[in-house]
């Protein structure tokens, strides 16, 4: 056992004795890249420090939420004050009203309902869509992740249009029988699905710009196409901005302005909780009015709108000004450039794709593929995965914490400074050589 991971390894052993795989969410176990998962002890700005005392520039940011960096003084002070006042009442509170107002002001939704996780947000949005339309089927896209909602843990079969087959044991065929899984960015497949099942489809759900198969943005105004197709067929369009919301722009992917047709429903999470469990779904007022207690579609939560979580989220959003987003864009561009240059120097064929400041690298097979845009899950899957594992570990050993899987987006925080960029540049040149080997 290596000395610099001794304490993480010991904790991993203890964790494995009481928790399946030693982790509370699978990707944390490093299975895709191998090695000992690092147990973090603290974070400060753009850095995280593990229990062995190793410090890393953090390009995961808790899978998105830590937009301003770790332990931001103003967020910390607001949270400490909120905790001091009391942590949960199961009654309405002022911070949740203010967070709702902030979300409505930043996005095209008329009303929001707060929940505690992105999974709950998408699950509740689907229920509302089914309740509102009186229809059962939903369309999702291969490679889009919407949390571990049973009906959305479906994999496509072999045809272009396939009714979902359960993507994991424990999800029954009956549960996914109403889930239609289509290839992402494939307008013809969507048209065909509506031709076949049009009057049964309650909703189409998609990540506004997928980040869970690496970053694979929509092409050909795919979101507008989906929104219009839904409208023409009496279905609802659900845009999942759990990852992109309040990260890419003040509102999310929507704020880039490339989409023009407002979704019927949207889901949010991650950044809006400022590092605490808070998420939301929202949309058109007439649809949201169908939720209990105003309407009859039931949805609830003991800790929904929790005052500490909403204070953290609200403080984060209020600090996330246009200048912060401009800085995030610059930082993301710089990292893409310096990592790209290192890979080119080492002769590693790669593609990098982005949606605003959200980006990822794909280690492609050959230089022919470098210019070929990756538009769907099949394209994202054709990567040289061992290269990513080698790259990841060399970055880690040189002080940069990347997502421990090739299929994830890289997340920057506003706390990344010139020193951190220098660390990334130095690490990338070693890591690129490791990936080339
Ligand atoms: N939707 C998207 C687009 C996500 O990226 C995620 C999580 O990564 C979720 C939903 C689920 O969110 P949570 O992990 O908070 O349940």
Textual characterization of the structure:
The structure is a single chain. With 437 residues, the protein is an alpha/beta fold. The protein is built from 13 helices and 16 strands. A hairpin with a 4-residue loop joins strand 2 (47-50) and strand 3 (55-58). The longest helix is centred in the last third of the chain and has 25 residues, at 322-346. It is globular and about 60 Å long. Bound molecules: pyridoxal-5'-phosphate. It catalyses: (S)-4-amino-5-oxopentanoate = 5-aminolevulinate.
Instruction: Sum up the overall morphology in one term.
Output: globular
Average predicted local confidence, pLDDT: 96
Biggest sheet statistics: 8 strands, mixed
- Bin the strand percentage: 15-25%
Please, how many helices? Answer: 13
Which bin fits the share of residues in helices? 25-40%
What distance lies between the first and last C-alpha atoms, to the nearest angstrom?
A: 24 Å
SSE string, helices as H and strands as E? HEEEHHEHEEEEHEHEHEEEHHHEEHHEH
Q: Strand sequence of the main sheet, in spatial order?
A: 4-13-12-11-10-5-9-7
The rounded Rg comes to: 21 Å
Bound ligand species:
pyridoxal-5'-phosphate
